[in-house]
């Protein structure tokens, strides 16, 4: 089956398409700092949205995989006037709706809505930055959770592999 054409509405965020792999660092006031590996895949089916899946795993000091960490999946929609909407779901019982803006190869997102199941940890807000720097996808994430305001949580540098 032939790959469909990328929907024209996706032009501002088409640079995300593909599979990205790399490593990053994380931490939060309630946990020790850690190193992680990550794989992100952005896909499309010809409709005006990108599919998104992210998987992370804990790395030891030598860079070996120790165990799985977070997984999230969702959809990214580019809107007129460089606006963007992102819907993410997590297996931990959290769903987030982000709104933001695309400026060239930089995307800034803030949560508009956070919904949690009764068993999910307290999480109230997120702020994410994504950018293409020298061909690599760089991102940073701040979260507000368990009584803390928006605080740095994770960041990574990913290389396009497919």
From TrEMBL:
Heme b binds at residues 30, 121, 153. Gene3D superfamilies: 2.40.128.20. Residues 9-160 form the THAP4-like heme-binding domain. GO terms for molecular function: heme binding; metal ion binding; peroxynitrite isomerase activity. It is an enzyme of class 5 (isomerase). Keywords: Heme, Iron, Isomerase, Metal-binding. Belongs to the nitrobindin family. This is Peroxynitrite isomerase.
